[in-house]
Structures are given as structure tokens and as C-alpha cells.
Amino acid sequence: MTVTKSYIAKSVENMRPSGIRKFFDLAATMEGVVSLGVGEPDFVTTWSVREAAISSLERGFTSYTANAGLIELRREIAHYMESRFRVRYSPQNEIIVTVGASQAIDIAMRAITDPGDEIIVVEPCFVSYAPLVELAGGKAVTIGTTGETGFKLQPEQFEAAITSKTKALLLCYPNNPTGTQLNKEDLQLIADIVKKHDLLVIADEIYAELAYDQDHTSIASLEGMRERTILINGFSKGFAMTGWRLGFTCAPVKISSAMLKIHQYAMMCASTPAQYGAIEALQNGMTDVESMKKDYRRRRNYIVQSFNELGLDCHLPGGAFYVFPSIQSTGLTSEQFAEQLLLEEKVAVVPGSVFGKGGEGYIRCSYASSMAQLQEAIKRIGQFIDKRQMN
Ligand code: PLP
After folding, report:
1. pLDDT for the residue 391
2. What pLDDT, in 10s, does the model give residues 295-339?
3. Does domain 47-284 have CATH number 3.40.640.10?
4. What superfamily does domain 10-45+287-390 belong to in CATH?
5. What is the DSSP letter of 371?
6. How far is it, in rounded angstroms, from Cα 149 to Cα 143?
7. Which of 205, 236, 239, 321 gets mutated to test ligand 1 (max ligand atoms within 8 A of its CB)?
């Protein structure tokens, strides 16, 4: 009998594929491309971390771990969160080790969302947020930030988006794609509204280690916020461990227990050797994190100054490893800019429009590349701009 129906769930059929992938796929077919497109460190994971994972395999630690992760790792995470960010979580029942921050976001959404619940998503943002809200049965209410405010969420626009169905605010800082960092005062204004309306915050702080101008403040460390925050963090970015697929959640017991139910059925546990590597990363990897951060800071300063010199306005982002220059002076849309730049000068960047409201008119450039690559990219972008100015 021939297949006559689609079988695919409507929620998935209606989902748009990630706009980032389209550019990577095109760039992959070309030779000599300088890529500022990828959102991952160009560093290889610290050797002692790799060695710890290898050693765990040599010692035969190849079974499942506890659903929430190795207790030794959860203890290290608890210590790390308290010493770095002044937030205290119990390793017994408030920390879950996940398969990347990606899975952490997914279980957070699924644990709190009933059909029709609204989650406020601040854009431009990481491309997976709105789709994961929708997959969890919720409604993503998107609000756009703008270049004029350095892409900071304004308290008035946040409050205006709240309805009787709002359950949570999903916030990411330092931000992907803008690099925007929120300081304690910014966070306090947001926290006051969250408390006033009795909401939750899902705080994606995966770039917390990459804050260049002042120490990162976790929103959970503000008064009255620990009990209404689900913290998302992980090893991918600060520790240069993207391929290890290791993240974690920190949340009050009740929410953690709900997330753990989903995690135990959908994932069982995160990879065992990766967890042994992560223990080493937390115990002895901080010097390397600091040295990578120093390098990123130097590159950030170079690339921001270069874009401004080329006439592409670029704010100085406080964290992550992205800059988000305006391309409005060229008269092109961000998609046209990215496509023409790739085809003519072989530089891959991501159009700001794929990151949602507020992203049109900008491009995302990752500076997690060597200085030589960055200099080459800037030279080619300069040629691209010059050609347009001459016509
Ligand atoms: N959150 C943000 C803001 C990101 O930019 C990314 C990856 O690019 C993730 C989460 C996913 O991280 P992980 O590799 O830990 O799944």
C-alpha cells in the first residue's frame, strides 16, 4: 500500500529550518572561504581535560551515570557556581548535567510549559529558543531590542509584553548574536518586573565566562530571584568543549525534579567520559579559560575598531565572541549583504535577520578565529564596501 499521508507532526512541519545552516551549507561548497560564521571557540579543549576523559575510559568507566550526572561533577558545579557567581545550589537535587545547554533549554521549556502558556523571548537571540518554546506547546512572544540601546532589553517593553498567560522570560546574556552584556543595574530592573508579575526567568548564561569588561552577574544572585530562576550554563563556550555536549541546569528543587523527570526518560544521562573531563575542567581548567578570554578580548577590540573604521557602526559588546555591526549604510538587507559578501569575497557571516526581531540591518560575525583570519576577513569586507562606494 502506498503512503498517502505525511505522518509529520504539524508543529514540526511548520518549523523553519535554521537560517544559519543555509549559509554554512553554501560556504561548505566553496574554496578559500574565511568564516566568521561559526559560534564555537577556535581553541582545542585543554589537554588535561582531554586526558581525564581518556583516563576514565582506560579505567573502564563506561556505564551510565546517575540521571542528574556524576555526584562528583555536580559538587564541582555547585562549588563553581557559588565561587564564581555567588549562587548556591545543592548538588543533591538542584543541579542536572545535560547534553549541552541545548538540552538544558529544552527540558526547562518542557518542564514549565502548559499548552497556551506564553514565554517572552528577547530577540535578536539564539535561533533555538522560539522553536523549543513551540515544541513544548507554548507560545513564544518575541520582543525585539535595538541597536540604539545596545540591544538591551528595556524594562518598559518587557512589562508591555506581559499578559495573564505569561509564564516566563527567556533571557540570554552575554548574548548570542549581539554580544550584549547586562550589568547588575539592568538585571535589577528586569528582576523587579519579574517579581511584580510573579514570573519565572530562564537565564541562558552559557557565555558567562566570556564577560570582558566586568564580572558576570547572574540574575539568580539578586534578591528574591533564586527561587524564580532556571539557570542554564555549560562547558561548550568558556571551556572550549562544544563537541563534548555537556551543559547543566541549576534551579530550585521543585523545578529541578520536574526537569529531571523529562531528562531521565528522554536522555537517561549525559556522556560519562565527558563528565569526567568536565570535573577536570572545573578543578584545574580556569587558568586556560582566563587565557582564552584574554585572547578573545584582544580580538574583540580589533574587530570592533575595524568595522567602525570601515563605516559599519559596531557597538562594543561586553561578552561572548560575536560582534553585530550595522550594514544599513550599504542599503542592502542583511541577507543580501551576507550572500553577496560570500559569493564575491568569500567571507561567511550570518545575516542578523535570522536571529529574529531587531536583527535586520545587522550581521553577526564571530571572532572566535585567529587574528590572521580576522585580518583577512576585514580586508575582504573592506574591498566589498569599497566596490559599492565606487558604483
Ligand atoms: N545558548 C546559546 C546562547 C548559544 O549560543 C548556544 C550555542 O551556540 C547554546 C545555548 C547551545 O550550547 P551547547 O553547545 O552547550 O548546547
Report:
1. 58
2. 999 999 999 999 999 999 999 999 999 999 999 999 999 999 999
3. yes
4. Aspartate Aminotransferase, domain 1 (3.90.1150.10)
5. H
6. 14
7. 236
